[in-house]
Design brief:
The protein is of the alpha/beta class. It has 10 helices and 12 strands.
Length: about 280
Amino acid sequence: MNITGTTELLGVIGFPVKHSLSPVFQNAALSYMGLNMVYLPFEIRPENLRDAVRGLMLAGVRGLNVTVPHKEAVLELADWLSDEVREIGAANTLKFSGGRIEAYNTDWVGFLRAVREVVDVENRKVLVLGAGGASRAVLYALKKAGAQILLWNRTREKAVKLADRFGVRAVDSVEEAIEEAEVIVNTTSVGLKEDDPPLFDYGLIKREHVVIDLIYRETPLIRTARERGCSFQTGFPMLVYQGAESFRIWTGCEPPLKIMKLSLKDYGYPTESSRTLLRT
């Protein structure tokens, strides 16, 4: 990568964000396409968000990905919101254009493209765990795909509020909901650390379940699904697909998906043989 005085900046903001793999595949894509840009992580505390985003824009940064815990807060800083952002209530992509901030959400596209690699969710009962910014995008995508959605969150009030917003059913107990659910989607950060307490009794998972975790590593939830013989998916495919859509927004170029995936091979990106497509 030849960085010069004309090299443009892209990046990802979050707290924490140093663990992010977005710089790996975004820089691989930028290099492959011959674009004079570089993608960097910026760790920003919530109390510094407004100043940091404004400062990055004024410094000439072209665009940013947005991750936890800023996906909802950045809406207050944007001058323009896409239709999806308005409906979801969260953004994961910012584009700086002509002195204004445009907010987009590519998480829902990334999730929908990823989930269709393992299961056709139309008319299937899907249990969504969590009610944060990532959950909003997942709910939006599942609604678009025609799924029957059950929503659970440790704080019931949050689940009820979000369920009302998206017209889905909030449930009080994972243990009860899992009996009727066909697909389980974890949108929380539980599992990011090995010593995180489980979201529910993973012993209730059956071979017939399809298990999806948005965390892009083998969490205890995914490990249990693998041991039970379930179809499963980590957050790797969604990570790449949402990032590819952001790449398209910033550059106007078709993202090189194969290059993006290959760049993550050493970080555990799954092979096609590790996934099973279910359509019956």
